[in-house]
Structure formats: C-alpha cells, structure tokens
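Record type: ASSEMBLY
Status: queued
Input:
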Amino acid sequence: MVTVEVCVGSHCALVGGLNILESLEDLKEDYPGQIELKKVECLDVCDDIKRSPVVKVDDEVITAAKSEVVMSKVMERIET
Amino acid sequence: MTLKGLYTDISHIRRMVFEEVARIALEDKGYEEFDKIPYNIIDTEEPTYRSSIFKERAIVAARTRLAVGMDYKESQEHKLISESIKTFLEENNPFYKPLVRVIKFACEKCPTKAHFVTNNCRKCLAHPCSIVCPVDAITIGETQAIIDQDKCINCGRCRKVCPYNAIVDYERPCAAACGVDAIESDEYGRAIINQDKCVSCGQCIISCPFGAIADKSMIYQLLTDLKKGDKINAIIAPSFVGQFGPLASPGRIIAALEKLGIEKVREVSFGADYASLEEAELFHEEVPDKKEYLGTSCCPSWTYIADKHVEEAKDNISPSYSPMVVSADSIKKEDPDSKVVFIGPCVSKKLEATDPHVVDYVDYVITFEELAAIFVAADIELTKIEKEKRIEDASRYGRGYANAGGVAEAIRTNLEDKYGSEIDIEKADGLADCKKMLTKAAHGKYEGYLLEGMACPGGCVGGPGTLIKTKKAEKEVDKFSKESPYRTAENNEKLKKYEK
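Status: finished
Output:
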C-alpha cells in the first residue's frame, strides 16, 4: 500500500495540484486497495509558487510536482 | 479529444500571467512592473518549446496585454507593455470586442481539415482505400498510398475501410473545437476567428495545443477598484462548488471572497430560480400558440447562435433576463452604490456583460481560473480558512442550472407544480449540437418543445474557466443542490422578497 498526500491549498490548486489528484484518482480505480489517497491542506513548503504543487509519496516530498512524475513514483511502489 | 482537465504548460503560463497581473493590482505597483512579467514567467536560459526565448516572452507579453483587457492589435506596434497599458487604462476603456483573439505569432499554422495516410500504411495488395474512393483521389506510391488533397472530399470511406488504421481524419484542434465554423485561415495559414460567426464560447482557447488563443480579462480593473475602496459585491455561478479543490468548501470560498474585500456574495442560482419561474410562465402562456417552441436564455453563446447562425429561431429564444442579470439586479436594488462582479466558468458572459441591456447590472466578469490566481496573489489560503460563511440563496433546481439538463429540469418542474402540465424537452450541449438542434427547430421539428441549449460540453461545469474535470464538477453541483433548504424556485423564501 502506498500513501499519497496531495496538497490542495490555494497555490497547489492553481498550478496543477487538482489535476494530479484527478490522475491519481483514476490510477486508484485501476489498482484497487493499493493506493491510499489523502487530500491535505497547505503543507507550508511552497513559499515560492515555483515549488508548487507539493505531493508526498510515502515519506518522499515532491515539489514542483507533475502528474507523470507522481504517478510513476506511485507505480514503482505498487504491484502490477 | 480534449485538453480539458489536464494541467499543461499552457494552463501554467496562462495562470501565471493572471497571478502576476493580480499581484501588480493588489500591491499597487507601477505600470513598469508589467514589462517584467514575460521575464518572470519565462526565466530559462534556453527556449523550452518555441524557436527562441524572445518569442516565448513575446507571447507572454501578448497574453499580459489581453489579461488587462486590452485589444491585442496594439501589440503589433512598437510599444512597451507598460506604455500601452497606461494609455489604455487612462483612456478608461476597459473592454471592447472582440473578446477572443488568436495571438498570431503563437499560431503554428496547423494544416486544415484533411485525410492523411500515416506510416501505418503497408502498401497492401488489396489497397481497399483506393477502390472505395468516390473521386479517385488515391494512388499507390512507392512506399504507401497517397491522397491527392486537391481531389479529396473528406468523405472518410478510405479511413473506414483500411485494415491497418493507416488513414486519419485530421482537423486543426481549434477548428475541431468550434461548433460554428468560425475558425478560418489568414494568408499565411494562421488561424483567424471570423467574428461574424464566433459566439465567444471559448472552447478554442482551451483546445489549442500551442496556446495561441486567449480571451480578455478584467482582473486588473476589478482589483484596482477594490483597492481604491469601491464597494463591490459578487455573484457566483452555480458551477463554483468544488472548483477550488476538495477542501475549499462553498463556505470557505465565500469567506475567502470576503477576505479579499468583496462586500457580500450571492449565488447566481438565485437568478436561475427567478428565470426558471419566468420561463415556465412564458412557456405556459405562449407555447405552442404564439411561439412554436421556446429556447432557454441563460447561456449567452447559445443565444448568439440564434443571432448569428439560425436567425429564424431568434424570436423563439426566451427574452427573459439571464440568471446573471437577475442576481446582479437583486444586489444593486439592495445596495445601489455598489458594483457587481460575476464569477463563473464562462468566457461568453464577459461579452454578455458588455451588452447595452446588461452593462448597468454587471461591472466585471471573471472566471474561476482567474479567481484562483487572485487568491494566490492575495495570499489567501483557502484550506486554512476557519470560519466558513453559509450561503443559501437558491433552490435545488436553481443550483442544478450548472449541469446540462438542469435548466430544462427546473422549468419542467415549475410547470408541473403550477399547472400540472407535462412538456416535451430537447437538450443539446456543445456548440455543434446546439446549432443542429436550433436548425431543426427552425424547420418545424420541435413544435411545443422546450429547448435547452448549453454551448459547453456537459453544461456550465464544462466551461473554459473551470479548474476541475467536468464529471467531477457535475457531482459536486448535484451534492450542493441537495443541500438547499428549498426544493423548487417557488419555495425559495428569499426570492419572494425580490421584484425585478
């Protein structure tokens, strides 16, 4: 089971955080029971918007996250 | 095929421009700050996508001009952004047509509609493609089939018969997104918008994979007036629920607007309730005896289709004021010295607001996407707002206006409740289908019908100014509708106190 925390604060929501969340929701449907998805409030690491969006995959904090990067980190941790 | 719902580099640049413009307004910075925007956003040493960073910056500069509401034409002159913006704003002419523009040098001159043979072609012995071609346009070349583009009539027979899926039906994304054929080419092969045909729905803006199309914004005007101390109220379209993320509840969004300095906020579904009663009344009195059918009036792009493309249908579109106008009017009656900003998913509402009959009611129109950028520029963190602000202005059916089918459903319910009458309904969403439906109506196909037209696929929740997927937004709207204390418009206590 991989735990993913997606920040959905104002900064992250503006610059693609919501879209990353949507792509993970799709992925979760394809791999039931393997992904725990949490929508979290602002993690206070994006003082500069260039560090948004912020996503945590297990203990790894990803800044300036992109859907493809986050999804591949998640895929590495699940059984396909 | 659509880019909607994906966060692309185009979305990123667009939103960063909004955020920069909003910041300049909020921090009361000088005009020269506008000149820095292209450098702030394109801060690499090397170009990322285009031929040079200078071109990338020039496109951001063009977007900046549009983002303050200026006409794009001006950027062809040699003038600093700050200079032209200064002249523009001091002329006090914040908005004029056209609303949607192709940034010419950002357009990559995609080929126009054609059937192409791809390298999937195996040059097979059977070559059914050429056999089925009704204009003998296909020859078999050295390595693959070749379509003579001068002869081809785009019938698609070759594509359907090919055993290797080697033939594609290709259309430029902007033109494919346009349901009213308003995209044409200039002498250089760049896309241009035929303004006589365009209904400003904005679908081309979110469909161009090169980000060459943009609309004008009123962010700067709204925020500088707010800073100046003008009393500004907001009306927010029913599709707002969930747009700012799963933790930004409606109550938090309203509270965030007040934090920004907005006096009070009203749901546009309040006006939807009013309009649904009025249109039910109109339908009952006039259809089919005086009017053969009735078209709904809330989607401006849909009404522009009647104006520009199916003129025979014009008189059958309900003349009632749109939910936006009614909601704005209700606020201005209570608060005559205030200004009103409409916040919604919609591009064409920006145009509706410039209509001589509407201009006194609505002072600014901004999209959810633009508002999200404003929240960031104003350092308002939605997920940390503690005190939510309750909003209860509309019935379940009024709130349902945001979803395709919701408008007709509200009017149908009103007619059933009041007169016990059952009516025939036909609905269309997406411009092309709207136009088809209206054309059929003009040919007598829908006698006695209520016709609901929504220019955006899925209804307002599919609007170009939204931030979340259409399906997700639809569910959020449904959920929020059920939370309303009033079942129908007739039960809306707040509406009883209002007279247009």
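Annotation: The helical segments of chain A are 10-14, 17-30, 67-76.
Annotation: The radius of gyration of chain A is 12 Å.
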